[in-house]
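>> received
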Amino acid sequence: MNPNFNRFKQLVTHPLKYKLFLLQGLPAAFFVGLRVQELTEEKCVIKIKHTWFSKNPFKSMYFAAQAMAAEMSTGLLALGQIYKRQPSVSMLVVKMEVSYVKKATGMIYFSTEDGAAMANTIEEAIRTKEGKTLVAKSIGTNENGEIVSEFLFTWSFKAKN
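>> returned
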């Protein structure tokens, strides 16, 4: 586990610092309104509301808005594990698979619990000095707890020399 994870968590859970983080690196996420609901070393939950910015013509949430929230739920866990790490580690999504199960309206929560596996994969990439991949799952649920979509993101990690 990264000893700097808590410093990263303070950055993304502080309201002003989080908005600046989004504006600088993920402006679309800022305008869509992605919010961190929960962040631990094991789990991340991102919430997104069906609004004018995230809608599609079919009166539900646009698939790209869902993908953005789902990716962030897995990506924040990865960023927390590589934050200020020595040696530094690069990360990249190399594949995405998705199943849309139900119309997404209202508040949607994208959750992943792959933090421990992610930390282990990053440690292995550092130890072996080879690129390593991990498939992280993010499940989107509505306010009633019903699954609206399921995403699988294949993340690649490589220690920089």
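>> Residues 5-159 form a domain with the Thiol Ester Dehydrase; Chain A fold (CATH 3.10.129.10).
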